Amino acid sequence: QVQLVESGGGLVQPGGSLRLSCAASGSIVSINAVDWYRQAPGKERELVATITNGGSTNYADSVKGRFSISRDNAENTVYLQMNSLKPEDTAVYSCNAQIKMSTEWGPKQYSYWGQGTQVTVSS
User: Fold this and answer.
1) In this structure, how many other beta carbons lie within 10 angstroms of the beta carbon of residue 13?
2) Three-class secondary structure of residue 89 per DSSP
3) Do 22 and 97 contact (CB within 8 A), yes or no?
4) Is 74 helix (H, G, I), strand (E, B) or coil?
């Protein structure tokens, strides 16, 4: 089995910073692309940032220049560094990872979601 756990959310003032973590554990062969999503109350889920297994990154226009996604393959962890936070960044942030896991039938890739972590930007 594989587990994906986010952490690092909290309450921060406008202009502040937070670093979110998305840690995978279990029978992992490899972790391919990982996405960070967010969903604010009453709004649709939004793709915020993506990192491939090769380290290529992509960002939503709304966070470019402020957020940075990175990964530590040795620790099976992906980070989302969020700077210059704004009230409109308030949302539940979740990670989605494409993980190849070891099974009795050989390695198989599945999509996993974490439970989400709340980020609130308010004075």
Assistant:
1) 10
2) helix
3) yes
4) helix
Q: Tokens 């962890």 correspond to what residue?
A: 77
Query: Cα-flanking dihedrals φ and ψ of residue 73, to 5°?
Result: -65, -30
Residue 63: φ, ψ to 5°: -120, 0
- φ, ψ dihedrals at 9, nearest 5°: -70, 175
Per-residue pLDDT tens for 30-59?
999 999 999 999 999 999 999 999 999 999
Reading phi first (left if > 0) and then psi (alpha if -120 to 50, else beta), residue 53 is in: alpha
- Interatomic CA distance for residues 110 and 1, integer angstroms: 11
DSSP label at 100?
Answer: E
